[in-house]
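User: I've been trying to design a sequence by hand for this structure and keep getting stuck. Would you show me what you'd pick, starting by listing the structure so we're on the same page?

Assistant: Good idea, let's start from the same input. This is the structure you sent:
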C-alpha cells in the first residue's frame, strides 16, 4: 500500500514537472524574439518527453500493483536511445554507440519474447 501511495505522489510530481515543461516550450514557440537556438529548444522537447515517459512508467506500475514489465522498460530504453540518436547527429562515435545499443535492445526483446512464449 505504501508503494502505491509513493508511486502516486511521484506521478503527481512528474505531471506537475511535465506541465512546467509544456509552459516553457509554449513560451519558446510563442515568443516573438528568437533568443534561443534550435538546440536549446530541442533539449527542452527531449526533457518534456523524458518526463512523459517517467509518468507513463509510474502509471504502468500503478496499473500492475507496483510492478513494471521488462518489455515496457526495454521499450523505454529504446525510445531514450532514439532521442539521444536524434540529438547526437554530429558525433559519429555517439551515433554508432546509440545504434548498436538500440540493436542490442531490440535483439534482447525478441529473445525475451520468444523465451516467454515457450514457457
Amino acid at each position: 500500500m505504501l508503494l502505491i501511495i509513493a508511486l502516486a505522489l511521484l506521478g503527481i510530481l512528474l505531471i506537475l514537472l511535465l506541465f512546467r515543461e509544456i509552459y516553457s516550450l509554449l513560451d519558446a514557440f510563442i515568443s516573438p524574439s528568437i533568443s534561443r537556438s534550435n538546440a536549446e529548444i530541442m533539449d527542452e522537447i527531449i526533457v518534456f518527453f523524458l518526463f512523459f515517459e517517467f509518468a507513463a512508467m509510474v502509471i504502468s506500475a500503478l496499473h500492475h500493483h507496483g510492478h513494471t514489465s521488462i518489455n515496457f522498460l526495454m521499450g523505454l530504453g529504446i525510445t531514450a536511445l532514439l532521442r539521444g540518436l536524434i540529438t547526437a547527429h554530429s558525433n559519429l562515435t555517439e551515433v554508432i554507440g546509440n545504434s548498436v545499443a538500440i540493436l542490442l535492445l531490440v535483439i534482447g526483446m525478441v529473445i525475451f519474447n520468444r523465451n516467454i512464449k515457450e514457457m
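That's my pick for every position. To get oriented when you compare it with your attempt: The two ends are 31 Å apart (CA to CA). The helical segments are 2-30, 38-63, 70-87, 92-118.
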